[in-house]
Amino acid sequence: MELTRTFDDATLVQALRSDSNPDDAIRHLYRTQYNLTKVYIQQNSGSEEDAEDIFQEVICTFIDIVKKDKFRGESSVSTFLYALTRNTWLNELKKRDRAKIRDEKFEKQKDTTGPDVGHFIANRETKNQLMQLVDSLGATCKQILLAFYFDNLAMKDILKTLAYENEQVVRNKKFKCLKQLEQMITSNPQLAKNLKSVYE
């Protein structure tokens, strides 16, 4: 039977700073800190999936800080991670609020002649290229993006076709899908230029 190794703050930081084998230290962080993150995120408008994403981001950030000798130990590792979690989640919520405002603005302006993702997906010159990228995002992302931008469905109508709790969860997923799509097309300047207008 494999024994579970535990760490105090000093040995934990030392193990993370070492390039030899930080796996036990990382497992210790997941075992001792994840539930705290999960509770905080869920109490502040987030889901379990959000908690997993934020925790992974926080751990990566913390390891980077430790490796660069920027963790001074002025607070405990747990307190430091909580502060990182709080700041990371608040920034994420701000991004989502901006995305929600963009979504609402877009829905109000669907009848205008301004460019939007649906227009570019439907455009003959870019349709095939974009559809290949959308396909690579996975079935759920494809369903949400096409339903919203191509079929002009409202969030409440899209929600009916998915196994999600509420419209906000769908909005969050759509935001993540869009960010993935945006990152994937940066190698194509013309498509990047077309999609950029959506974020302005």
Structure description:
- With 200 residues, the protein is mainly alpha-helical.
- It has two domains: 9-97, Rna Polymerase Sigma Factor, Chain: A (Orthogonal Bundle), CATH 1.10.1740; 111-199, no CATH class.
- It has helices spanning 9-17, 23-43, 48-67, 77-108, 117-122, 124-136, 139-150, 155-159, 167-184, 189-196.
- The longest helix has 32 residues, at 77-108.
- It is elongated, with a radius of gyration of 21 Å.
How much helix is in the residues?
over 70%
Secondary-structure arrangement, i.e. CATH architecture of the largest domain: Orthogonal Bundle
Number of domains: 2
For the sheet with most strands, the description reads: none
pLDDT < 50 stretches: 111-115
> What structural class do helix, strand and pairing data support?
mainly alpha
Cα-based radius of gyration, to the nearest Å: 21 Å
Overall geometry comes to elongated
Helix count equals 10
CATH class designation of the largest domain: Mainly Alpha
In the CATH hierarchy, what is the superfamily of the largest domain?
RNA polymerase sigma factor, region 2, helix turn helix motif
CATH topology of the largest domain: Rna Polymerase Sigma Factor, Chain: A
The SSE order reads HHHHHHHHHH
Proportion of beta-strand residues? under 5%
How many E strands?
A: 0
Mean pLDDT equals 79
Q: What is the rounded distance between the termini?
A: 56 Å
What's a quick, concise take on this entry?
The protein has helices at residues 9-17, 23-43, 48-67, 77-108, 117-122, 124-136, 139-150, 155-159, 167-184, 189-196.
